[in-house]
Amino acid sequence: MSQLTSLKFTPWLPLFIIGANLGYTITVLTRLPWWTLFFIAAVWFGIGIKLRWGTPVNARYRSVWPWSLVPLCMLGIYIYLADSFGNVDLGAVFFHLQAGMAEHGGAGKMLTAVIYTISMIAMLVSVTWLTRHDQRWRLTERFVALFLLAANPMLYGLGQRSAAIVTDDGAWLDRRYVPPTTEDQTNAPNLLVMYLESIERTYSNALFGDAYTDLTALGERGLVFEGIQQMDNTGWTMAGMIASQCGVPLMPAGLLHDSQFDPLSKVVPGVDCLGDVLAAQGYRLSYLGGASIQFAGKGLFYRGHQFNTVKGKEELSTELDDPEYINSWGLYDDTLYDFTVDEIRRLSEEDDGPWALVNLSIAGHAPSGFPSQTCLDRQGEFDGQDILYSVECSASLTRDLIERLEKEGLLENTLVVVLSDHLTMRVSVWDQLTTLDRDNTLIMLGDGITPLTVRRGATMLDVFPTILDVMGLPLNNKRAGLGASLLSTQPTLVETHGLEVLNERLREETALQQRLWEGLSPQRREPPENADQQVIETPADQANEVEIIR
């Protein structure tokens, strides 16, 4: 076999594989366009040929295993997550592993994962070949292994979380937690909460054309809240729901779970959430979602917090006129919204006290969305890539649903809350989005609401008390959970401390985690006897924050 075609005697194939992977990694982690990976690979290949990597003078072969294989695998996992989601959230990874990933709908991601796996295997084989055939690689690759370990953001995050276990004060957030009150309140309105998958308010920027126009039109009729940032552990669907309904970030159960290898049996059982507060007021509660309620513990969360009706893909698909009209995640939004109308009709006809309904769309799901047939008929052909098409679809269907319910008189004495569950992950306009100050959608409509735009420093934690406040339900000092009503003069945690401080404190927190998962842990840690005498560094660090001066 000639040297030009024999992998044993020529380094061109290992150099090409490593160069291609290096180029791809750099384009994922930077803003460089995708085509620059070819330039990077070519430069790498040229340097390798010039320095005779793999075929040095006086080559000495040794059958060794490189130190860098494990660090390369860890970096490969990080690159896959960063490429898929834009930002790597370890909390999301850990929570989904415990809460369940059945019926995740990510068929496309499975194919991508297979391609990544093949690429990583080729990378590991190439590094091993060069290390065994080139003594210079054997001398330097162990230092490369140390660099890869130190530079991997995922391992850095794991180290920070491990350090939190021994921190001196792991109760900074827990001291600021205010349990929601369940006092009786008469004449509270019905409630419709519409989570729009990944439809952040940033899409209202002129860069994105008219994709957000229908939501802007809705906002002109009601309350619009601007400046709702994304705190750590609130950046995926279940976390966004819990933050906005419980006023707390979703800290995974982790080691607090009694059986590490069994799925969770409850989701944040240690705190009262929107469902618990409304159930105490006599509300009938329903949740409808296009995706499976088995994914990420959605069913466990809603049933565990007193929702009477909880339906997702499996339950609703049996009622479809066309069983084939579904996508890889579940029901299209036009179908889901038809079921929403039917459910509100049922709740209204029963006339047995107030009702609340929560639904979750999927049209805006990254990377390209799932526009429904209704939108295809209205907007024309979908190219399968442009997320703005799906954003426009989600916005128009949301407006259509609300106007349809109003025409039927089904929204009398009803507060309608339209919000994004979290900021979007990597999509076709990712580079434009990440140059802007991003914030979540939050719009409220209802009888007696005067159109108003409120801009404050806030997070999804503040949505929970704001909903209760607008509904006229009692609050303890205008607070609930870790949030403050955005219609009050109470400062939010972001306004008082800043987002970076909150995220830093979250990484050190252990007491709030124990509170969230109380009942799943062996025993909640008791505070020390001298806890009441603890020294507070500054007045702003106290649980009762200073009020905003207006």
What's the order of the H and E elements? Answer: HHHHHHHEHEHHEHEHHEHHEHEEHEEHHH
- Please give the count of helices: 20
Please list the strands of the largest sheet in the order they lie side by side. 4-3-5-1-6-7-2-8
Task: Supply the CATH superfamily name of the largest domain.
Answer: Alkaline Phosphatase, subunit A
The radius of gyration computed from the alpha-carbon positions, rounded to a whole number of angstroms, is 26 Å
What's the CATH first level of the largest domain? Alpha Beta
Number of E-state strands: 10
User: Which segments are poorly predicted (pLDDT under 50) over 5 or more consecutive residues?
Assistant: 1-7, 159-166, 255-261, 521-525, 527-540, 546-550
Largest sheet, in brief, is: 8 strands, mixed
Mean pLDDT across the residues is 85
The CATH level-2 architecture of the largest domain is identified as 3-Layer(aba) Sandwich
Distance between the termini: 82 Å
Helix share bin: 40-55%
Strand fraction equals: 5-15%
CATH topology of the largest domain: Alkaline Phosphatase, subunit A
Shape: elongated
Helix/strand class: alpha/beta
Total number of distinct structural domains: 2
Transmembrane segments: 12-29, 35-52, 64-81, 110-131, 143-159
Subcellular location: Cell membrane
Main location: membrane
GO cellular component, one term: plasma membrane
List keywords for this structure.
alpha/beta; 550 residues; Alkaline Phosphatase, subunit A; 20 helices; disordered N terminus
